[in-house]
Amino acid sequence: MAVKELSDLSKSKESEDRDSLQALSRNPHRQQIIKHGAMQHTGLLEIQSLHKSYRDRSAFSHIANVLNGIHFTVGENETVGLVGSSGAGKSTIGRIIAGLEHADSGRMLYQGHDVLALKNKERRTVTNSIQMIFQDPYESLSPRMTIEQLIVEPLVIQKLYKNEPEKRRQLVRAALAEVSLTPPERFMNRYPHELSGGERQRVGLARAFICQPRLIVADEPTSMLDSSLRLDLLQLMNQLRERHQISYLFITHDIALTHSFCDRLLVLDKGEIVESGTPQDVIERPQHPYTQRLIGALQQLNKI
Ligand SMILES: Nc1ncnc2c1ncn2[C@@H]1O[C@H](COP(=O)(O)OP(=O)(O)OP(=O)(O)O)[C@@H](O)[C@H]1O
């Protein structure tokens, strides 16, 4: 296909995308949020003064400060977007919340528990309902496991329904149905490479959902999907949120997506939250110089 045709195709896809994103933002829950500005959500997660540094493995063994005192909250049934440049520390925040990384200092209050002060076993019990989905479903799903084994794995790790294989299968089937991979039997015995990228991302969500999460940290879950699959996944995530009253911390490079998907937006620059507000406020009236540069660049590229 000629370069021009490809570029026309991608432009028309982008405008289709924008139309669909607008449709997504017409959902009644989002309307309520827009109407009331920053809608009040009762607290689920509160991050206070979070610091993290990494030791550089170079000859100078220098310590790089990645998070410099982060504060934010995520409410019940709230979707909070987190944007920022590459290397700003977005994934580090997500990994700390999901328990995959340790913070140097700070507090993480989750459902009233001071999580970082708990011993490992107690911490796992309290945070079982925090799940993470990742950017690259190829990397996050073991290629040697079937879809059934992948989805049941969190139950195996948590030793749930240990002697009830049929109950576990039933939960796997329910999780697959939840993410619209139906009939579940069509998918359970396949391996990740036998699924499309969009289907693999849904398997990641099903794995999160089998744990009955209250909070899902979604680290760029749509960035490897093409534009229509991206929308399908966001719509599915929205439906699941409405059905199960869950919250998302949605990490993304794509600020345009947050407009229709998030209730609140946080902007991270050099390990600090420099701005927060409704996506509409942040995008239309950016206050911090970094956000102004980010929005300005996207406007020049006609991306928002
Ligand atoms: N395990 C690690 N060891 C050393 N440095 C790390 C480690 N993990 C992350 N970093 C560094 O911390 C900084 C923040 O990384 P992080 O992955 O959180 O950024 P990000 O905002 O998610 O970036 P991107 O959008 O590109 O994914 C980067 O400079 C990265 O190189």
Automatic annotation (TrEMBL):
For this protein, the record's PROSITE patterns field holds: ABC_TRANSPORTER_1, ABC_TRANSPORTER_2
Q: Tell me which InterPro entries the record gives.
A: AAA+_ATPase, ABC_transp_ATP-bind, ABC_transporter-like_ATP-bd, ABC_transporter-like_CS, P-loop_NTPase
The ABC transporter domain is annotated at 45-295
The UniProt regions of compositional bias labelled Basic and acidic residues, in chain numbering, are 1-20
Q: Where are the transmembrane segments?
A: none
Keywords on record: ATP-binding, Nucleotide-binding, Transport
* Origin superkingdom: Bacteria
Q: Which SMART domains match?
A: AAA
User: Region Disordered: which residues?
Assistant: 1-27
Mention one GO molecular function.
ATP binding
What Pfam families does the record point to? ABC_tran
Name the protein family.
Answer: Belongs to the ABC transporter superfamily.
What is this protein's record name? ABC transporter ATP-binding protein
Species this protein is from? Paenibacillus baimaensis
